[in-house]
Write a structure and sequence with these properties.
The complex is a heterodimer of chains A (747) and B (182).
Chain A: H1 27-41, H2 52-55, H3 57-81, H4 85-88, E1 93-98, E2 104-107, H5 117-127, H6 130-133, E3 141-144, E4 156-165, E5 168-178, E6 207-211, E7 214-215, H7 217-226, H8 230-258, H9 260-285, E8 289-300, E9 314-325, E10 331-334, H10 350-364, H11 373-376, E11 379-382, H12 403-424, E12 437-444, E13 450-451, H13 490-494, E14 497-499, E15 522-526, E16 530-538, E17 561-566, H14 570-576, E18 598-602, E19 609-611, E20 616-620, H15 635-643, H16 649-654, E21 660-663, E22 668-671, H17 673-690, E23 692-693, H18 694-706, H19 712-724, H20 726-736
Parallel strand pairs in A: 10-11
Antiparallel strand pairs in A: 1-2, 1-5, 3-4, 3-6, 4-5, 6-7, 8-9, 9-10, 12-13, 12-16, 14-15, 15-20, 16-19, 17-18, 17-20, 21-22
Helix pairs in contact in A: 3-8, 7-8, 8-9, 10-12, 19-20
Chain B: H1 5-13, H2 18-26, H3 33-44, E1 50-56, E2 59-64, E3 67-72, E4 77-80, E5 90-94, H4 97-101, E6 115-121, E7 128-135, E8 144-146, H5 148-155, H6 170-178
Antiparallel strand pairs in B: 1-2, 2-3, 3-4, 5-6, 6-7
Classes of the chains: A alpha+beta (747), B alpha+beta (182).
Bound molecules: zinc ion.
The site of zinc ion has 7 residues of chain B, from loops.
Chain lengths: 747, 182
């Protein structure tokens, strides 16, 4: 990560003088100085010889534990105060302590996305001279949820408070909470029919909203007039303020006990120590070199009821990903060839991309509880300006789903690092996850209250296989690794629906010698609703093109899908006490086809539609990747899958080349080992008979490209990347030996 | 935490008891893992060439007569490590509904107009080495081009006898294939 010196700031302080030990320096001067120190030495805050932590390791450990304990206590405080299932069940919150210049020192568990983003907000405030123009005083409260400043989407609200000690600003405390309602266009807080900033909902641009630890009365009234779920929003803020105050008090106690100089120096050394540790981890667990993958992002906007008419078109953007692990342990992610930005809420931003890298790198590499800004310093992102990952000007755009491209990119990134772990021998560290999607609703609930919200039964998708075992069933939520959402019924209190089923879906799995975890579809029946609409919620923009998440010969999990059943005979079935619809069954002849009514098969970006009581919303995610050739799956593992309903005889035979039968006398599954061995040998022979040399396939595909005989959306997608990058163009044309003038028929 | 060779073998086979597996997953990572794995794999393969780097399931980068090549544990050789081994594999390209339904039935099937499922298979033994799911027309992905000499020189501190530039040479294969077209 490069830290750029900010033009216009005084960066000329003599490095011989350490301004943080002097009072009277402005934050802007301090920030500029830190950036210079990093540029000059490559060490955080110029700490070339860390000594405070090393001199007395026991004291250092105590110091860090105290910080972490304060953060965890603060986070739990919020969960007690808040009424939102996002906080109480999904645990989509986190708290961090920052240096005066906005660099993260320590972070609670939780949604580790915001480790850097929240610091960016502080630095934005410093760069815009809040010190003089707005004022930063003890007890001040600032809100930011504007992704043009920093962050992942407006639903993530940051509560930011300075920490003073004897008149000197010594730290910041920031809490992030994801909100269900942010006043966006219906439905939910991540709406799809949403391309301009106004429909994104309320945005606080790092605004001072409170003094003396109290929210301003006029801001409270503004919230009450602007949000349907103002109570939930304000309770979340109370929780965040309580947490911030608790952490602030603990910081003051720590300073009292350890001394101010120790607090400052040790805090900075924690960042530098973590930077060094992260490099050490990369050098210990990976192999230097070049790693590649590709992410397609599908945007279906043609039928969206948006008033910005140029947005109404379906298109796909390509994001090639190249990771380079350098000699010195630096890790660079280069997105050369990423296609252009567009009018939809799914453009990423540099801040959002860093957020994605933050949680992915922390949860898979820097997971020892000491993650902070230092975890990210050895990493770098190259994001082409004007691309879907980095539009020139984000301000006119809706930003509700920056999350979607981010999660698609970094779930694949995990697979790329996994290939490196394999080479180094750490197969147990291999891991992938995957973006989900689902249906969100808005309307009047069973109590007559207007609900614009997003239902988030996350924690329902399986984890990718590792190189040594199957992925956890329903355990793939790397984003908030603590979430289990055992209490999924809580959503029934907030939305007018009843859950009809909660069964693992065997066909969601990514096949392999080790399989991915299985996922659980959402099956929601509308109940006592009024004027309700359903639409999509997007956490990942791959749909008809499966994400390339298979490892070592394993397959990616199947396509996710959304289905809506309307005008059904469910009411009559309930009346007759006949069986309802509870599980998907076989994906080629799904159980819901038994239900009388209209069946709408939707992609991940369905436009809003009206739904009524007894209509059923089904959202089924696909799991990430399996690992290794499925024909090598252990037969006992397969037998257990059969016993547990995580495979059926068809999967056993078609995918795993294994013959299994239910022994009715014992009601147990049995795999015929001998016949299975024969079948597997035959399958390998069949493969070889059916496969062709890659050269033949290359000629055939090349001809299709020359003739423009592939889908028009794909041709336009390639064209967009070619417009963005000469390097992409020349490599693409070289690979297919295409003439220079080739455009695939696109003008 | 050092892991014994027996435990490593069982770990990779998926047969190590869960309590031990969990301990390895959660414990501090062992600094000599690479050497231990290399030793184990060298014992397991049935050919004599020296393994420089395990590349992925079944594939190794080995030293063979002064050159570095990709080799399957069945003995099949894929050529220079700097040329994407997939170009020398056999392929089943699932690019229509019927062939996709074999793996992804019904609602789970991707769209063959947009997506291609490429299965790369070892011509020697028929094992499935990689599944690639990409937009139709996307070049074959070169998953990993490890910088072997930087790894041995700088990271392991025991340089190999000769050095080879780490550069993508897949284009050499393409130009051979493209020759009749010109
Ligand atoms: Zn082979």
């Amino acid at each position: 990560m490069t830290i750029q010196a900010t033009p216009g700031l005084d960066a000329t302080l003599s490095p011989a003088r350490d301004p943080i030990s002097e009072t009277g320096r402005t934050l802007a001067e301090l920030l500029a100085y830190r950036r210079c120190q990093y540029d000059a030495t490559g060490c955080y805050a110029g700490i070339t010889h860390p000594h405070v932590l090393n001199d007395d390791p026991v004291r250092a450990e105590l110091f860090h534990s105290r910080l972490l304990a304060a953060l965890i206590a603060g986070r739990e405080t919020t969960r007690m105060v808040s009424a939102s299932p996002f906080v109480r069940e999904v645990a989509e919150l986190a708290i961090g302590i920052y240096t005066p210049e906005g660099d993260n020192i320590a972070q609670s568990p939780g949604i580790q996305v915001h480790i850097r983003c929240m610091g960016e907000v502080i630095q934005w405030m410093i760069e815009h001279d809040y010190e003089h123009e707005v004022g930063i005083d003890p007890g001040d409260l600032f809100w930011c949820n504007d992704p043009t400043v920093a962050g992942m989407h407006p639903a993530d609200v940051y509560d930011i408070m300075p920490v003073f000690w004897q008149g000197e600003l010594v730290a910041w405390v920031c809490t992030v909470i994801m909100e269900m309602d942010i006043g966006a266009v219906s439905p939910g807080c991540m709406p799809i029919a949403n391309v301009e900033r106004a429909t994104d909902g309320m945005r606080f641009v790092a605004e001072k909203v409170g003094t003396n630890d109290e929210l301003r009365h006029d801001i409270e009234l503004k919230i009450k007039n602007s949000l349907d779920m103002a109570d939930i929003f304000l309770l979340d803020r109370k929780g965040a303020i309580a947490a911030n105050i608790r952490v602030r008090q603990e910081i003051c106690r720590i300073i009292d006990e350890f001394g101010l100089d120790f607090f400052k120096e040790a805090g900075r050394e924690l960042i530098e120590e973590e930077r060094r540790n992260q490099i050490a981890r990369i050098r210990q667990r990976t192999v230097p070199g070049r790693y590649r993958n590709v992410v397609p992002l599908e945007f279906y906007m043609a039928d969206q009821p948006v008033s910005w008419l140029p947005a109404r078109k379906d298109h796909i953007r390509l994001v090639p990903v190249e990771m380079r692990i350098e000699r010195d342990g630096a890790l660079v992610l280069d997105f050369e060839g990423a296609g252009e930005w567009g009018w939809h809420p799914f453009n990423a931003t540099p801040s959002g991309m860093w957020g994605g890298l933050a949680f992915s790198a922390v949860q898979t590499l820097a997971y020892d509880g000491r993650a902070n800004l230092g975890s990210l310093l050895p990493l770098d992102l190259r994001l082409p300006t004007g691309s879907v990952l980095n539009p020139e000007d984000v301000r006119p755009l809706a930003t509700a789903s920056i999350w979607a491209p981010v999660i698609d990119v970094f779930s694949l990134w995990c697979g790329m690092v996994a290939n490196s772990y394999y080479m180094r021998g750490f197969r147990e560290e291999m891991f992938t996850y995957r973006g989900g999607s689902g249906l969100q609703m808005a309307g009047y609930d069973q109590y007559g209250t207007r609900r614009p919200l997003l239902a988030a039964p996350t924690g329902n998708f399986g984890a990718g296989a590792t190189g040594v075992c199957d992925g956890l069933d329903a355990g793939g939520a790397l984003i908030t690794a603590e979430v289990d959402l055992g209490n999924t019924e809580i959503w029934e209190c907030f939305m007018p629906y009843l859950d009809l089923g909660r069964r693992f879906e065997p066909y969601s799995v990514g096949w392999g010698r080790f399989r991915s975890g299985a996922s659980i579809p959402t099956t929601a029946m509308l109940h006592r609703s009024t004027e309700t609409i359903a639409a999509g919620v997007v956490g990942g923009a791959a749909e008809y093109i499966l994400p390339n998440l298979g490892l070592g010969g394993g397959y990616p999990g199947g396509r996710r899908f959304n289905v809506v059943l309307r005008n059904t005979d469910i009411a009559e079935l309930i009346e007759r006490r006949a069986p309802l619809y509870h599980e998907l069954g076989h994906p080629a002849s799904p159980e819901f086809e038994r239900i009388d009514g209209e069946i709408l098969r939707l992609h991940h970006m369905p436009p809003p539609m009206e739904v009524n009581d007894h209509d059923i919303l089904i959202a089924s995610v696909g799991s990430p990747g399996g690992y290794g050739d499925p024909l090598e799956r252990d037969l006992e593992a397969l037998r257990i899958d059969l016993e547990e309903g995580l495979a059926d005889p068809e999967i056993a035979e078609n995918i795993y080349g294994a013959l299994a039968e239910l022994d009715p006398s014992r009601n147990e599954w049995e795999v015929d080992v001998e016949r299975t061995e024969d079948l597997r040998a035959a399958r390998r022979r069949e493969r070889l008979a059916r496969a062709v040399p890659v050269e033949d396939w290359w000629r055939r595909t090349r001809e299709r490209l020359v003739d423009g005989d592939i889908d028009a959306m794909l041709l336009e997608m390639y064209q967009s990347s070619m417009k963005m990058s000469e390097a992409f163009t020349s490599e693409f044309k070289q690979f297919w030996a295409l003439p220079d003038a080739w455009t695939g028929g696109v003008q | 935490m050092a892991v014994s060779k027996d435990d490593l073998r069982d770990l990779f086979a998926g047969t190590l008891a869960w309590d031990k597996t969990k301990e390895i997953i959660s414990g501090p990572k062992d600094d000599d893992r690479f050497e231990a794995v290399l030793e184990l794999l060298q014992e397991q393969v049935r050919w004599p060439e020296r393994i420089l780097l395990p590349l992925r399931e079944h594939l190794y980068i080995v030293e063979s007569g002064g050159s570095r090549i990709v080799k399957c544990d069945c003995g099949h050789e894929f050529g220079d490590w700097r040329r994407n081994w997939k170009m020398s594999a056999a392929i089943i390209a699932r690019d229509d509904i019927a062939s996709m339904e074999e793996i992804y039935p019904g609602l789970r099937r991707p769209d063959p107009n947009l997506c291609e499922i490429r299965e790369f298979i070892c011509p020697g033994c028929g094992v499935l080495l990689d599944v690639e799911s990409v937009p139709v027309g996307y070049p074959v992905v070169f998953d990993a081009l490890p910088d072997i000499d930087v790894f041995y020189d700088d990271w392991l501190g025991r340089p190999l006898e000769d050095h080879q530039d780490c550069e993508d040479r897949t284009a050499e294969i393409i130009s051979k294939w493209a020759k009749p077209l010109l």
